[in-house]
Amino acid sequence: MSFREAQSALPKGDRTIAVMPQTAFLDDKQRSILAGLRDTIPYYGALAVSPDEGLFVEWLNAAGQHHSRDAARAAALSHCEANRKSSSARCVVVLEVLPKGAKPDAALSLSAPAADALRDDYRKLKGPKAFAVSPSSGTFGLSEGGAQTALNACKGAGGAARDCVVVVAD
Known about the structure:
The chain is 31% helix and 19% strand. The protein is of the alpha+beta class.
């Protein structure tokens, strides 16, 4: 898609909303802590815990700066499953941080830093240019010079990003 199409597909501004899909097993103190985390996790972000363990575990870590809700959820669940006690219940997502105005069927979704780079840096590039993202890792790259250069920048940004794809080109 073009830069103009990308701009219209992305939510405007940097405001976020918090969704807490499965929190019935948390007490009021833990739900209050979750609500306060909204402003500390960049979108798309998520946090998963085991219902048996709750929030007060040493390994708690939110997944942030992903390019989609699904990628953030997958990263949060993967981290939780790898760290929970083997006897604990399977992990569930308790917090999602989304950009305000995000549409589930949008043609493009980007992490907060990638959206900022597209709006601010990409627009300033001259000549052939492209913007690439890694859907699984949240990395991105942009470049004058076209698609392959943007793909290389994306792969180099994440160290091990192997799934970079060009999402904007002009």
